[in-house]
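TA notes, week 10

Several of you asked for a full example with nothing omitted. So below is the full record: C-alpha cells for the whole chain, then the designed sequence directly under it. When grading your own attempts, check the secondary structure regions first.
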C-alpha cells in the first residue's frame, strides 16, 4: 500500500512540475516576444525621427544655398553649402537609401556597432560617405532593414539622398563572400557603392557568409527612367 502511495505522490509531483514548466516556458516566450516587439517598435520610431531629421537638414541646406546664391557679393563655391559635415559621430544620420524595386527605404546612420544596426543601416567606417568619390560601404541586418536584399538583382537602381544631394547607382553584381573578405571594400577611383549583409537570409543563428552587392554611380544625378539591364539570378556561391 505504501509503494502505491509513493508512486501516486511521485506522479502527482511530476504533473505539478510539468504544469509549472509549461507556464514558465509560456511566460518566457511572451517576455521574449515582448522584447522583440519593443525593439522593433523602437527601431521604427527611430527611423521615422531619423528620416524627419534628414528632411529638415536637406531643407535647411537648400535654404542656405539659395541665400548664398542670392548674395551679389559672395557667390558660394560649388556644392559648398551642401557639404556633409566632416566629422560624424556613431549613430548620426548620414542619409537615406532607396531601392524602389524591392521596396527598401531606410535611414543610413554613421557606424556599424550592434546598437546602430538595430536602428538602421550603417555607413562603414573608413569608406567614403555615400555619394562621394570612392567605394562607399553600407551594412545592415538581413532580418530587418536589409531583408529585401534577397530579391536584389543586377541592373536594379539605388538612390542615395543626403544633404549634398541625390546620387543614383546601378547594381553591377551580387556575390556571396567569406566574412573575412574585405576586398569588396577596396578603394576605387570612381563613385561606387557596396551593400553588405549576412547570408543565408533565412539562416537561424550566426550566419556563416556575407551577401555583397556592388553598384556604380550613374552620371545623371536625378531619377532616371532608362531601361534596366537584364537581371541576373542570385549566385548560389561566392566561391
Amino acid at each position: 500500500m505504501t509503494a502505491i502511495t509513493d508512486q501516486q505522490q511521485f506522479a502527482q509531483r511530476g504533473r505539478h512540475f510539468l504544469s509549472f514548466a509549461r507556464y514558465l516556458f509560456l511566460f518566457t516566450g511572451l517576455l521574449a516576444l515582448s522584447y522583440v516587439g519593443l525593439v522593433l517598435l523602437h527601431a521604427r520610431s527611430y527611423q521615422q525621427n531619423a528620416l524627419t531629421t534628414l528632411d529638415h537638414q536637406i531643407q535647411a541646406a537648400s535654404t542656405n544655398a539659395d541665400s548664398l546664391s542670392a548674395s551679389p557679393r559672395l557667390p558660394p563655391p560649388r556644392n559648398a553649402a551642401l557639404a556633409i559635415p566632416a566629422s560624424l559621430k556613431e549613430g548620426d544620420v548620414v542619409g537615406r537609401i532607396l531601392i524602389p524595386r524591392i521596396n527598401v527605404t531606410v535611414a543610413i546612420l554613421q557606424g556599424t556597432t550592434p546598437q546602430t544596426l538595430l536602428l538602421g543601416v550603417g555607413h562603414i567606417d573608413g569608406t567614403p560617405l555615400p555619394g562621394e568619390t570612392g567605394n562607399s560601404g553600407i551594412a545592415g541586418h538581413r532580418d530587418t532593414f536589409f531583408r529585401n536584399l534577397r530579391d536584389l538583382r543586377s541592373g536594379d537602381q539605388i538612390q542615395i539622398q543626403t544633404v549634398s544631394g541625390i546620387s543614383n547607382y546601378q547594381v553591377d553584381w551580387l556575390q556571396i563572400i567569406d566574412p573575412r573578405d574585405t576586398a569588396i571594400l577596396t578603394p576605387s577611383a570612381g563613385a561606387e557603392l557596396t551593400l553588405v549583409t549576412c547570408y543565408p537570409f533565412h539562416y537561424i543563428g550566426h550566419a556563416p557568409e556575407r551577401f555583397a552587392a556592388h553598384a556604380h554611380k550613374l552620371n545623371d544625378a536625378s531619377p532616371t527612367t532608362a531601361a534596366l539591364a537584364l537581371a541576373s539570378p542570385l549566385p548560389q556561391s561566392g566561391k
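Residues 135 and 187 are 5 Å apart (CA to CA). Use that as a sanity check on your answer.
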